[in-house]
């Protein structure tokens, strides 16, 4: 995943090239003013796919946010795919102006990856995570095997593609990029039921920086 170090994710390049080509063609056919809109689109795409470096500073058992955005909801649920038991779900909504690179909330080994096709409802709708296209990534700490959680990438009305670079068996550092969602979406984190949640609905969070919870067990 060497492209992690690029200031702009390479996924942006096809859109940028298309925007510049359209801008050039519009300028030739219709004049300078017609070229402005596709040129602005190319600039926006570069901004959308920005990939800033983040310095992770977290204590043992602290879980950091996997994405930039706003906390939508915090709910107690039954998680049946990976944790297989009571859990706390923290939903984070990313608008088109947020960084859309997703980061690992903890260090650990990827134990579970599953892609689920689905719809493209607005990501801020409460039922979107059950109906929309989504991707599940289960991670367990190697240094603290009792610490495990599930991250879910969820598409939205505009977002039409989930990108995940990891597979089962891969190791992730805390804060390491593991994927992205293109053009507006939601990310959910399922923590063990006994976790202490450190954020609240409506709070802004930063991927790789904001502590969203502390896992307690045993």
Q: What can you tell me about this protein's structure?
A:
- With 218 residues, the protein is an alpha+beta fold.
- 18% of the residues lie in helices and 35% in strands.
- It is built from 3 helices and 14 strands.
- The strands form 3 sheets. Strands 9-5-6-7-11-3-2-13 form an 8-stranded antiparallel beta sheet, with no helix packed on it. Strands 1-14-12 form a 3-stranded antiparallel beta sheet, with no helix packed on it. It has a 3-stranded antiparallel beta sheet with strand order 4-10-8, with no helix packed on it.
Short synopsis of the structure:
This protein has helices at 13-30, 32-48, 128-131; strands spanning 62-64, 69-79, 85-94, 101-103, 108-116, 134-140, 148-155, 162-164, 171-172, 177-181, 185-192, 196-197, 204-205, 211-214. The protein has 218 residues and is α+β, with helices and mostly antiparallel strands.
Please tell me the CATH architecture of the largest domain by its name.
Answer: Distorted Sandwich
User: Based on the structure, what is the oligomeric state of the protein chains?
Assistant: single chain
CATH class type of the largest domain = Mainly Beta
| Total domain count | 2
Q: Give the strand order, joined by hyphens, for the main sheet.
A: 9-5-6-7-11-3-2-13
Rg over alpha carbons: 18 Å
Let me know the largest β-sheet.
8 strands, antiparallel
CATH topology of the largest domain: Glucose Permease (Domain IIA)
Number of strands: 14
What overall geometry do the principal axes of the alpha carbons give? elongated
CA distance, first residue to last residue: 35 Å
Instruction: Return the string of H and E elements.
Output: HHEEEEEHEEEEEEEEE
């Amino acid at each position: 995943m060497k492209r992690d170090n690029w200031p702009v994710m390479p996924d942006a390049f096809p859109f940028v090239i298309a925007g510049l080509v359209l801008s050039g063609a519009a300028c030739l056919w219709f004049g300078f003013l017609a070229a402005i809109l596709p040129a602005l689109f190319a600039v926006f795409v570069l901004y959308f796919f920005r990939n800033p470096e983040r310095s992770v500073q977290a204590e043992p058992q602290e879980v950091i946010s996997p994405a930039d955005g706003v906390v939508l909801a915090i709910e107690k649920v039954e998680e049946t795919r990976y944790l297989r038991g009571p859990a706390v779900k923290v939903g984070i909504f990313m608008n088109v102006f947020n960084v859309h690179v997703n980061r690992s909330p903890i260090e650990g080994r990827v134990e579970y990856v599953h892609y689920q096709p689905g719809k493209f409802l607005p990501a801020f709708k409460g039922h979107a995570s059950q109906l929309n296209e989504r991707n599940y990534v289960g991670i367990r700490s190697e240094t603290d095997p009792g610490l495990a959680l599930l991250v879910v990438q969820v598409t939205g009305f505009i977002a039409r593609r989930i990108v995940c670079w990891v597979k089962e068996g891969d190791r992730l550092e805390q804060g390491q990029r593991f994927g992205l969602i293109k053009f507006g979406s939601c990310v959910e984190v399922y923590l063990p039921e006994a976790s202490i949640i450190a954020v609240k609905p409506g709070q802004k969070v930063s991927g790789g920086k904001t502590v969203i919870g502390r896992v307690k067990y045993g």
